[in-house]
Protein 1
Amino acid sequence: MRLIRNARIAGLGEEKRDILIHQGKIEKIGKKIECGACFEVIDADGLVAFPGIVDLNLRVQDDKLTLPRLQQLYKAAQKGGVVRFVLSPRVTPLMENQTFQALLSGELQRDFPNMRLAIKALKDAETSRLNDISTLIKNGIHIVQENSDINGNLLRRIYEYSKMHKNLFFVFCENKILNDSGVMNEGEVSFRLGLPGISKIGEISEVAKVAQMSMHYDVPTLFQALSTRRAVNLVHDAKNHFPQIYAEVSIHHLALDERACDGFNTYAKLNPPLRTPQDREELIAKLKEGKIDLLTALHSPKSVLYKDVAFSEAKYGIDTIERYLPLAYTYLVKAGHIGWEKLAEIMAENPAQILGEDDVGEIAEGKNAIFLLFDPRAESVVEEKTSPYAGKRLWGEIVHRIGFED
């Protein structure tokens, strides 16, 4: 048995509590628990107990699916306190046959038990060939992912397959034609830098279309990494008619804005792009209103050789998972926008519920003892020049990972 003393539990107010753990489960939460048989006692005075993070939108480095890069992602996620994650299917080679899928969901998942797989709906966007969705789903994958701006009839067929197999559909909403080869947000900064911009209407119009399809087919749909107030509002309005529609926003769109791209800073080149300061403020307002269901670190690391180039040629992406919780604490909780309870809800509880995994996501009696002890008093300065947060001060660090694998 293990005993955590004097922890402030995210979601249970300011009062300190003890957490008694037996055989990997939380046996009791209370005040001044006595445990003569405990082999370990941790004094968590000043620390916050935070549930293991669940992120539904992580990618391997350079989107190249190799064993070393899976190992790299897995270790980084563990270090960042992530206890479950969905591996984005936007990888090379594409998972498109039973043999490859069986390898990933069989042998590799034994090595990476906290990883969940998704499949791309299309084999090839140029030829619009559908992947073998039915076969792959029957073999154990329950998440299908695709961009919204594919042929409308193909999107309809994907929804029909999803309804038939009762799987989740993850969609990234953009319209490449409306984007008109843009490389960052269309606004003051893009104009000043002389770079083609990405209009907000590309995201908004696609969200409106997909939301209608989601409601029509009654298919649970996650709208990935939204970046505009109107898109979030559209998803929330649709939720009034069909509750299983979810709005995801990245921490970066709540912490940064397009000014991070000044000086042609390719390390701030994200997709969707960082928007205006007003857009950021509006997204924070939507978060306070309860219209954002979950967060993502949008972890999509790119090698320097893909970033240290002209802005228009640089790849989209950011390496951020290891600092995910300090970023969220610094820019959301310490900044006074939301409290610990809301942060735990959008970083752990809600994404776990969307995945249908009730063994993680909250700290409660009877649940698996998988949580973090976080010190909000710790300070650090981001020293990596390859980060859009370079030079910024962050608060908090994870000091214990209870129940995580070694």
Protein 2
Amino acid sequence: MRPLPRLPLLAISFLALAGCASPPAPPPTAPEAPPLAQPCPDGVPAGARCLRGQDSAASHYLIVMPASWSGVLVVHAHGGPSLGPTSSKRNDEDIQRWAVTVRESHAWAGSVFRQGGFAVTTAAEDTERVRRIFVDHVARPRRTLLHGQSWGGMVATRAAELFPTAWDGILLTSAVVAGPATYDFRVDLRAIYQHLCNNHPRPDEPAYPLPIGLPADSTLTGADVARRVDDCLGTGRPVAQRTTGQAQKLKTIATVLKIPESSVPGHVNYATFTFRDITAKNGGVSPFGNQGVRYAGSTDDAALNAGVPRFRADPAAVARFAADTDHRGRFAVPVLTAHGVGDATVFVEGSDTLRQRMVSAGNGNRLVQTFVGSSEHSYWGDAMYPPLFEALLNLVDTGQKPSPAGIADRCKQLRQAQPADCRFLPDYTPQPLASRVLPR
């Protein structure tokens, strides 16, 4: 018998996205109070001026003006998503990491986003709102760049399509750019983990569909999950102290899903708590499933596929989730991306999906993709970002499209004393996402 098809779900997702082909009108432009001067967080370059506030949607934001301004504003969409109540401390963490932006004499603005958890469209609106606050109350930029980092790549691509005239260029680093399919492997992880470990949930606990992450009323904590993973896989102890059974189960998960063994606990955590948040925002049902997926790479694939629990994604949740999070590659401005080839958090293969979508939308000539010889997800070091900003601004100003090799060479020119800090791989080409995340 053929596996149950995913086509109806994909069709519903497509229809939901097709309804967004013409972006909805921006939210009403409510009068925004001016930001207030505040002391800068530690790590901000000397001489910079910091402004804080909460916008009309109650999103905390931070604006940093360098001592000598280039006229360029970089609006930052942060990674995550952060679960639970939002806090202005997130802004402090972001500018400390991205202080290189200010050292390049660019202004920096970032919103914490009004709604905690996995809410992409509202985060995109908050991102546009902090841009307007800067323009109305601080200065009028010569150029405005939108920077999406990690999950913030989802926010940035959504903001780029919702507010196409707001941005002059888009920079995406370690970004989620392949839409909901980016997260399918975490459903596979929960299913394979439960087949091998049977402790999340335990046999004496109420069963639930694993793609929902966790029941809404569960009191399980991150520490509880980590202990369960360690009990089964030995991930919380040195390799030499793992039992043969623990080591074999961990190897099976890592091999079948093509992820490093060290990344398994983090992905289980995400597929527990972030999936619960996604489910809560999608009517209490999950947009994820693994019906019809065939797993390979274990010592006994037949037994694995027979024993792994199966779940069908809820069609309405699929449509809602795609409508909130996904993009069509319809970007009105140049897009420059950079991604670590060994990134185990957001797979580099998603870059191929972005390319395909932009080409299909007739925007392939607006895309430049670069790749980094690193497994780091969050930050590759100060050497890597100045040539990216420079290349994107030059493309915006002159229309001259940079090459990956040219960006790599420029990095070494700017870092003559330490050229090894430049780790661009100009000849790298990513494989399709389906080579890494099993299609469904």
Protein 3
Amino acid sequence: MEREVWNSKIGFLLAATGSAMGLGNVWRFPYITGANGGAAFVLIYFIIVFSIGVPVMLAEFAVGRSSKLNAVGAFKKLKGGKWPVVGWIGIIAGFIILSYYSVIAGWTIKYFISSFTGLISPNVNTTTYFNQFTSNGLQNIFFQAIFILITIYVVYLGVEKGIETWSKILMPILILILLLLVIRGVSLPGAPDGIRFYLNPNFSEVTGRTILAALGQAFFSLSLGMGAMITYGSYIPKEISLPKSAFIVTFLDMLLALLAGFVIFPTAFTFGIEPGAGTGLIFITLPSIFALMPFGQIWSALFFLLLFIAALTSAIGLLEVSVAYVKDERNWSRKKAALALGTTAFIIGVPSALSNGTISLNLFGMQFLDAMDYLSSNILLPLGGIFVTLFVGWVIKDTALKEINLEGKFKFEKSWIWICRTIAPISIFLIFLAGIGLL
């Protein structure tokens, strides 16, 4: 069976950026920035993204394209032994994330609809509204199912006709909506104070915890360690430069996260809310603020449509990781794989949909959804990232260098290998230690 490839460079770049650009970029980046002192954090984040994020993404692209296989098959082909376990870590992490991510993504569909059906009103208690909705298991499952079905449909269509085509449609819409919301944000009365907080660094507030938070955000916002970039990399034609691609995808991902801050911070400072308020900021505080704005229903609908698209482009990448595996290793058809694995992810996600009040589902002393997030984000993803960089830096160095130099000499190749061998794995190990509470 001939392996699918991206039909165009722009299609691949938009697909990869879409995979990286998830819910975390829209709400988590502004939230982490707000909780860590604003502009000083942003500057540290940018430095880390380009010094560590780009090299790790390039490493994953190199593993994918040099093998032209899925996350497990890539390690099996390039070295074998125990190394395919690294691919399994990514596949399992991605599958777990997809299961609960689809629940939260379902909330964005509900809130998009509710923007026109009574949510955006000064008379609505948005805290009560959110709590009642998330504790309604059947509603959560219903919207989760809608989201998963859309994800399955895109992956079902294939790399070119599905993922690439829809990325070319969805990403420009996402960028347009984001720009409209930015224009609205910077026109608010409190915008200057919010922008000042966002862009004027105060390094007196920087601590080791700030740097660690920036390190974690840089790693997680780029969808690293879960096999997505290895899988997408396996579809890259030989004529596309991997170093340039890694830089462009990282830059676009970072730019979109930065723009999201121009939506959140002017709004937060105008209406006197805490910019480090987390998930509640998105589903509780912002709807009550939209209710105070002219044309609030429209702004609310656009915002939750933005969140939905960001979630969808990431979920497509998550599902594709496991679909590519069963296609390559088990000879399943793409259609069978997309339907079977998407349905399985939905079923595994049902306990997460029910764990917010319908029934009491606890694991490791946490709600089921939070436990799944902890397991994937704090343990599996960092482990995957550590071993991918070590694999490239120490085990397949010559193969990786040959792959990234196909389109011309990469002048930073020595620095890249050095980062993969030392700086990146050490940095990701610190993220791991912080995630499990040992740092």
Protein 4
Amino acid sequence: MTAHVITDDQEALAVAASLAEEFRAGASARDAERRLPRAELDRLSASGLLAVTVPAEHGGADVSTSTLAEIFRLLAAADASLAQIPQSHFVYVNVINRQGTEEQRKFFFAEVLGGRRFGNAQSEAGTRHVQVIRTRLHPLPDGSYRLDGVKHYCTGALFADWIPVLARAEHDKLHVAYVPRDTPGVTVIDDWDGLGQRTTASGTVRLAGVEVPADRVLPHHLTFEGPQLHGAVAQLLHAAIDTGIAGGALAEAAEFVRTKSRPWFESEVETAAEDPLLIQRFGELALQARASEALLREAARAVDAARADLTDDSAAEASVAVAVAKVQAAQAAVDVAGALFEVAGTRSALNSLNLHRHWRDARTHTLHAPTRWKIQHIGRYVLNGTRPPRHGLL
């Protein structure tokens, strides 16, 4: 694949807006038919958007976090499943930037600039909690590794060129192994059956005796031994997806009411869009959606500020700002997508219209990390000045 190389933030946003309009047209049908978006992902790769965080010294645009968040918001407003697929891609580009050797950075950033995609194989099912990782990198005499384990919720792995795998190595330290999708011993199973985000193919990855060269393994545990933005960036992208879902649902609800809804007879108006009670409700929903957008921008600016001067304090401020944005966005996504039916009326519930995809996507995506714990960390920080923990999920 030959990929375009985007040169700056302005171009990245223009490309994202154009692709979002293109992807919006087929989003409902892809969801209804569970038609996996291979062609759309190839368009995304070829556009150069997946390489926009590659550092300038390696030929990338190195766009701001604010731009990256807006890219995800635009894509999610058009198709939340499609927007979710590259979330891990950018997370693991970030791991290379932080923990890769110069040779590893040179190699992998060239791969990304060439349009290659990263998936993920990080979560495991049946463990005591999400931080328990049973997948192992077994060191071999020649310095390479043998990789064994089973991963679940592996969004993007089915479409990936490389699958970053979270695994424990010597002394139970956390590492990331970057494994080509077609490596012997790697099996990607399309068994995702979530009620929402139907086309993310977030299925299972089995790893059986996979050979991994030493130079394809990065010491991820080092990320958390000092101030870090790994979790803040990852969670910011999730917040951007939720914000996009809320905005997309609100726009579709408004279009439906303007063009297809009938006014309630007691309103004594000619069109549903003139009903004062509907107008009031749309104003309330717009407040939720716009608050999410504003907090997303604020959080992204906090992350950018911390990138420029990374300390324990700036990292904490960024993580808390992202947590605030994520809590608001998650609530807005579920509320606005659910209210679509309230404002659009009975016809909107027809399965054939597939308007419920917005709520299904919101309800599914907002389960990634519980907002109740984010609120706890926000409260501890505001009341007692307690910095958030460095576990990568905040």
